[in-house]
Backbone:
């Protein structure tokens, strides 16, 4: 499909976020003029790109799927990547979204034009003009590879977990894995039997608890298909149980020692070597960094053919890696499982608001938005998975659907009132963020005693939603027009102030 020269609503990205947005817009108004651009050749976002061995979701799939597109087909309670990717493609088919999506089309820049009250957008497939822009580019889509001295001299193979090199055979190789986060715990147990020797570089140990995964049998699937209410009931139970995590992680951190004791017991049961066990014991509260779910990560690190290096990665040579104690480890392949750049999203460098500055310049390293979605200085821009919408306990899909409700409500308010553009007023944005900061105070994500990617360059937690997800749902149910500067549709527009009074443009 070709990108048209003018569109009412342009969505950037066709992963869970972009598909939630376009599906909700079209459910509300099937004739809406909405187009999605996607830089890759297919939809799926993170579940298209992350194909490393063992890649799976660590949130139960009944919850980690669209409420408006349930699937009775899941084979496991924690779905594997191929199934999630297939699910997203099936949603496109089911909801007839294909004709709305332009693939192989990457956003290059989007500049707000105050005179036309539209976004001027450049892409790899040409230019377009959009009244409303929805950035659904994902928070965990740009792999982060640390700048290790000597990395360019390495003669073996190097790749990141999110861009797995499937052409490369790890059989009988000496492999170094850098990082021990949510991705590493999934693929290390999958490759350990193939490799001759594994050297895992751990900077900070993580708390690990069992993954209560099971296959979903034919009968259960048939039940979900015939009586969808049963599937909805399961989803509701999982939702409630996951929300209960907030009671501990945010509201009652005094209960965390119980979680710690449970995770320690798990560690003692799974790792026999006392030195390895000590190296794997975190010194911060569980939940401060993402709690990892795995049944085979810890036993893998206890194996004699696996080295756990905790002194840090100092440099890379042409045939190996040097740890901070100066020891050289000869390896054939280095796999970086070092995560992403959520607090410096690349899209923030591509969007320019009404003062000509980029979103990244506005943020100065500390992303902030009103209700995680709109930003002062950026009229008619909606961020999916924006600042402070990430979760440590439940499904991001729930948050994305909430944001999609909010933007649909905004589009309707604009249509009803003949409004060309809305821009959140700075005081409302500030007030929202003060509330977020106050709510985060004392939670495990701020006060758990670790350094995590939830905290940005300025030390602010600009990543996590601080409380129960239903509070975000209620906050995003209706568009709060009173918190917006309103630009009317009249030629050379009058502008309405936040009390909806006309002011000069
Ligand atoms: P991550 O959680 O950010 O972990 C990165 C790992 O690399 C950490 O162990 C980190 O150590 C280490 N690291 C980073 N820079 C390093 C450096 N310069 N030298 C040595 N070690 C370094 O990344 P991830 O495992 O890819 O996961 C990212 C996020 O993706 C997760 O938190 C989660 O939200 C999401 N994810 C979700 C699922 C799912 O099933 N839903 C699965 C995979 C990933 P430190 O801890 O010391 O920083």
Residues:
């Amino acid at each position: 499909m070709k990108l048209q020269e003018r569109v009412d609503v342009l969505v950037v990205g066709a992963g869970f976020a972009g598909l939630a947005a376009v599906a909700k817009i079209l459910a509300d108004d099937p004739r809406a003029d909405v187009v999605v651009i996607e830089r890759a050749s297919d939809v799926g976002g993170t579940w298209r790109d992350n194909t490393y061995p063992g890649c799976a979701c660590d949130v139960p799939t009944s919850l980690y799927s669209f409420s408006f597109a349930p699937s009775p087909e899941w084979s496991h309670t924690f779905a594997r990547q191929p199934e999630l990717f297939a699910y997203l493609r099936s949603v496109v088919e089911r909801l007839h979204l294909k004709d709305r999506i332009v693939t192989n089309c990457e956003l290059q820049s989007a500049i707000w034009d105050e005179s036309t009250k539209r976004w001027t957008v450049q892409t790899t497939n040409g230019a377009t003009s959009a009244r409303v822009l929805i950035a659904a580019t994902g928070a965990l889509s740009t792999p982060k590879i640390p700048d290790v001295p000597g990395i360019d001299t390495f003669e073996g193979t190097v790749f990141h977990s999110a861009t797995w090199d499937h052409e490369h055979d790890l059989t009988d190789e000496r492999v170094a894995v850098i990082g021990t986060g949510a991705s590493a715990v999934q693929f290390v147990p999958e490759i350990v039997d193939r490799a001759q020797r594994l050297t895992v570089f751990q900077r900070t140990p993580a708390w690990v608890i069992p993954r209560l995964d099971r296959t979903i049998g034919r009968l259960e699937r048939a039940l979900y298909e015939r009586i969808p209410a049963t599937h909805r009931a399961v989803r509701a139970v999982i939702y409630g149980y996951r929300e209960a995590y907030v009671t501990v992680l945010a509201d009652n951190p005094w209960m965390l020692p119980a979680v710690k004791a449970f995770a320690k017991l798990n560690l003692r049961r799974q790792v026999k070597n006392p030195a390895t066990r000590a190296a794997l014991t975190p010194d911060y509260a569980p939940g401060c960094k993402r709690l990892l779910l795995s049944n085979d990560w810890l036993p893998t690190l206890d194996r004699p053919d696996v080295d756990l290096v905790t002194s840090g990665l100092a440099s890379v040579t042409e045939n190996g890696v040097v740890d901070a104690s100066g020891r050289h480890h000869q390896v054939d392949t280095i796999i970086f499982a070092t995560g992403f750049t959520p607090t410096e999203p690349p899209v923030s460098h591509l969007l320019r608001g009404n003062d000509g500055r980029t979103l990244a310049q506005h943020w100065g390293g500390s992303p902030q938005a009103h209700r995680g979605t709109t930003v002062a200085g950026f009229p008619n821009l909606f961020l999916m998975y924006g600042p402070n919408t990430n979760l440590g306990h439940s499904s991001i899909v729930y948050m994305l659907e909430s944001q999609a409700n909010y933007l649909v409500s905004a589009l309707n308010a604009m249509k009803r009132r003949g409004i060309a553009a809305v821009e959140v007023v700075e005081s409302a944005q500030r007030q929202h963020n003060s509330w977020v900061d106050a709510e985060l105070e004392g939670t495990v994500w701020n006060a758990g005693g670790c350094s995590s990617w939830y905290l940005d360059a300025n030390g602010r937690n600009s990543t996590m939603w601080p409380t129960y997800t239903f509070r975000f749902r209620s906050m995003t149910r209706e568009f709060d027009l009173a918190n917006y500067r309103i630009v009317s549709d009249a030629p050379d527009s009058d502008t309405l102030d936040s009390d909806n009074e006309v002011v000069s443009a």
